[in-house]
Design a protein that fits this description.
The chain is of the alpha+beta class and about 300 residues long. The chain has 2 domains: about 30-170, Alpha-Beta Plaits, CATH 3.30.70; about 170-305, Alpha-Beta Plaits (2-Layer Sandwich). The protein is built from 8 helices and 17 strands. It has helices at about 10-30, 35-45, 75-80, 105-115, 145-155, 180-185, 245-255, 285-295, and strands at about 50, 55-60, 65-70, 70, 80-90, 90-100, 120-125, 135-145, 190-195, 195-200, 210, 210-215, 220-230, 235-240, 260-265, 270, 275-285. The strands form 4 sheets. A 6-stranded antiparallel sheet has the order 1-2-5-6-8-7. Strands 9-10-13-14-17-15 form a 6-stranded antiparallel sheet. A 3-stranded antiparallel sheet has the order 12-11-16, with no helix packed on it. Strand 1 and strand 2 form a beta hairpin. Helix 4 packs antiparallel against helix 5 (about 145-155), helix 6 runs parallel beside helix 8 and helix 7 (about 245-255) runs antiparallel to helix 8 (about 285-295). It starts with 11 loop residues before the first helix and ends in an 8-residue tail after the last helix.
C-alpha cells in the first residue's frame, strides 16, 4: 500500500479570512427578486433585476394601436411604460418611472399619484403626429417601496393599461433588420425585444439625486430603438441624455443625417448634473440611420467608442 499523503492543516486565521471574504461578497450581491416580492404583490406583476441593484417592472401599452406616419408602433418601440425601484436605506427605496398614457388618462392618474405621495417630474410628448395622442408622465418617489407600488397600481387601474401578470415576451426576431450592421455603425451592440432592436448607451459620469447615484437602468442612459419597416428600412426613436452644452451639437448631427428631433425637455427635477432629453424619429435605411446616430453620440461626453 502507498503511504497516505500528509494532511495539511489550514491555519485558523486563514479560515477566518475566507469566511470574512465570503460574507463581504454576499453583502455586495444585489438583492434577489424574492426580496422585492411585496412590490410585485402590490403591482400585480413580476419584475426583473437590472444592473445597479435596480428592480424594474414593465407596463407596456399593448392595448393601444398607435401610428406615426403610417408605422404602427410596437409597445417595445415607443409605448413601454416602466417603474424602477432602488433601495437607498433599510425599508426605503428611490423610485422612478415613465407611464405611457392617453390624454384622457392623464388627469385621473395625476390625482391618484399625488394623493399617494408619488410626484410628477415631467409630462409631455415624445413623438410628433402620432394617433391617438400619447403623453408620457415621469414620476418619482422616496419611501416604503410596497406603499409606493400600491399607489402606482391604484393610479394605473384608472387607465386601460394591461395589469396583472405580463404577457409572455415576444421571441427575438431579426427578420428584415441588419442588427450586426446597426451595431457596427453605432459602435455598441444592442438586444432584440421581439422585432425591436434596442441599444442603450450610458453616460460616463455619475448622475445623482438627493445624494443617491441613479443607475443608467433608471432612465439616465441614451436609448435607441429600431423597428423594421421592410426592405432593410427601420423606424427609429428613443432619447439622448444630454448635458446643456451637448444639446445643439447633437440636434445638428441628427438633423444633418435626416432624423427629426421630436421633443426636448427634462425628465427629472433634482438631478446632478442637470440633464436634458432629446427624442427623435426617422424611417429610412436602418444602417444609414445608425451612422447618423453614431455621429450624434460622438457629440456627447460618453459617445459609443
Amino acid at each position: 500500500m502507498r503511504p497516505l499523503a500528509p494532511v495539511r492543516l489550514v491555519p485558523f486565521t486563514v479560515l477566518l479570512a475566507c469566511l470574512a471574504a465570503g460574507t463581504a461578497v454576499a453583502q455586495q450581491m444585489p438583492p434577489t427578486p424574492a426580496s422585492w416580492a411585496p412590490v410585485e404583490a402590490a403591482l400585480g406583476r413580476t419584475g426583473a433585476m437590472q444592473p445597479g441593484d435596480v428592480f424594474k417592472v414593465a407596463f407596456p401599452r399593448s392595448d393601444l394601436s398607435v401610428a406615426v406616419a403610417g408605422v404602427i408602433l410596437k409597445p417595445a418601440f415607443a409605448l413601454g411604460g416602466w417603474v424602477a425601484f432602488k433601495e437607498v436605506a433599510a425599508g426605503t427605496a428611490m423610485v422612478m418611472g415613465d407611464l405611457v398614457l392617453t390624454e384622457d388618462e392623464v388627469a385621473p392618474v395625476m390625482r391618484a399619484l399625488q394623493a399617494g405621495g408619488v410626484e410628477q417630474t415631467a409630462l409631455h410628448n415624445h413623438l410628433l403626429g402620432e394617433w391617438p395622442r400619447i403623453m408620457y408622465m415621469h414620476i418619482s418617489a422616496h419611501g416604503e417601496p410596497a406603499a409606493i407600488a400600491r399607489t402606482i397600481r391604484d393610479a394605473l387601474s384608472l387607465t386601460r393599461t394591461p395589469l396583472g401578470p405580463a404577457a409572455p415576451a415576444a421571441a427575438p426576431s431579426a427578420a428584415d433588420l441588419d442588427t450586426a450592421g446597426i451595431a457596427a455603425a453605432i459602435g455598441t451592440s444592442g438586444k432584440l425585444n421581439g422585432v425591436v432592436y434596442q441599444v442603450t448607451v450610458p453616460r460616463s459620469e455619475s448622475i445623482t439625486e438627493m445624494g443617491h447615484v441613479i443607475p443608467p437602468s433608471m432612465g439616465v442612459a441614451t436609448a435607441i430603438n429600431f423597428q423594421p419597416t421592410g426592405g432593410g428600412r427601420a423606424a427609429i426613436t428613443g432619447d439622448f441624455v444630454l448635458r446643456a452644452s451637448e444639446v445643439n451639437p447633437v440636434m445638428r448631427a441628427l438633423r444633418a443625417h435626416g432624423t427629426v428631433v421630436s421633443a426636448l425637455h427634462s425628465h427629472m427635477l433634482d438631478e446632478e448634473p442637470r440633464l436634458f432629453f432629446m427624442h427623435f424619429w426617422a424611417n429610412d435605411d436602418a444602417v444609414m440611420l445608425a451612422r447618423g446616430l453614431r455621429a450624434a453620440l460622438d457629440e456627447t461626453k460618453r459617445g459609443a467608442r
